Amino acid sequence: MSDSEITQLVRPLVREMAPYRSARDEFEDFEAQKIFLDANENPYDTDVNRYPDPLQRRLKKVLAKLKGVADNQILLGNGSDEVLDLIFRTFCEPGEDEVILLPPTYGMYGVLAQLNNVRTHSVPLNEDFELDLEAISAQINEKTKVIFVCSPNNPSGNAIPLWQIEALLKRFKGLVVVDEAYVDFSEQNSASSLLKIYPKLMICQTLSKAYGLAGIRLGIGFADPEIIYFFNKIKPPYNVNILTQKRALASLDASDEVELQVKELIAERKNMEKALSNLSFVKKIFPSNANFLLIRVDDADKRYKQLIENDIVVRNRSSLIGCENSLRVTIGTPQENIKFMNVCKSIDQ
Ligand SMILES: *Cc1c(COP(=O)(O)O)cnc(C)c1O
Asked: Ligand 1: which of 108, 207, 239 to mutate, judged by most atoms within 8 Å of the beta carbon?
């Protein structure tokens, strides 16, 4: 490995360590008819008696085509949560390096930072929940390794304009992670088009939201092949199980249905936006490019309780910066949304 800018960002320990070599690493052609006596498996076929492909080659081939990236630009994980954890473990020296978070944002970045003993600096998003580039620049120092951008942002729902992400990439010499868990619902394109120009950009996506596969746990990372090399070096060898790989392949094959559902959910979101705006306890509905709405109400605790009493569970996000008295509501099926709106009308007095 050359001592490129990416290599220099990686923790010395990760640069130097020898990866665990699993019994199957040597076999490029994973599905060839061979007699496998190398991994102490039970030889009798149960569909899952063999270890999974550690590099998930078939699945990556399909995803590469679908997303317009190369196979070697993809990392797959046990949910985005594992992908995000690998970012910390690859780039952030515990007790030394730092990251920047942009609240209000997804809670896992902070949890993983704490777990990995990595100090965080928080730079709040501005009143439109977009990047405050000047304030971010002011927080960057020698130890800053990663900045986490969530777009569309959870819990606010808005997409961060691509020009702001590009401006950040120009200012910062560390890794910029753009978490696009909700990109399939967004009018704005993925930031993946910037991967060619900025090798220190990383994109996270997931099959948990639009694809309806939260239960199989499949997170996706796109980055420069050199970054992926280091992730592959330290990830648990069999981190994506066979059932998940099979189910993901089947669903990606039937993505027309997902596209229809996404269209319907966006239409439902727009309807719900209109209906909610007629209620007197709803003070503000934040613009959304996701499958949820953040709404500011008169009294979030009171409204949250009333909804629970009517068997409707939403997320109270009031404790987050910029989200005072705000509830986050996921868009359900048309029937669920009607029930939700009926309850909202009934408590609107
Ligand atoms: C839901 C969500 C994820 C998904 O995580 P998985 O572990 O892939 O289920 C990631 N990032 C954000 C911002 C999310 O809201």
From this structure: 108
The average confidence (pLDDT) of the chain is 96
| String of DSSP letters for 207-235 | SSSTTS-GGG--EEEE--HHHHHHHHHHS
Q: Does domain 3-253 have CATH number 3.40.50.2000?
A: no
**From the CA of 206, how far away is ligand 1's center (Å)?**
7
Q: Is the pLDDT of residue 106 over 60?
A: yes
Residue 105 CA, closest ligand 1 atom number: 13
Closest atom of ligand 1 to CA, residue 207: 8
Do the beta carbons of residue 237 and residue 257 sit within 8 Å?
Answer: no
Let me know if domain 256-346 sits in CATH 3.40.50.1820.
Answer: no
CA dist., res. 43 & res. 23, Å (int):
15
345: how many CB neighbours lie within 10 A of its CB?
Answer: 12
Query: pTM for the whole thing?
Result: 0.96
- Residue 1: predicted pLDDT: 45
| Domains of the chain, residue spans | 3-253, 256-346
In terms of phi and psi (left: phi > 0; alpha: psi -120 to 50; beta: otherwise), the region of 150 is: beta
Tell me which residues have their CB closer than 6 angstroms to ligand 1: 79-81, 106, 150, 154, 179, 181, 206, 208-209, 214, 219
The dihedral formed by the CA atoms of 108, 114, 115 and 119, expressed in degrees to the nearest 10: 120
22, pLDDT greater than 80: no
| 149 neighbors 106 (Cβ within 8 angstroms) | no
Which atom of ligand 1 lies nearest, measured to the CA of 206? 8
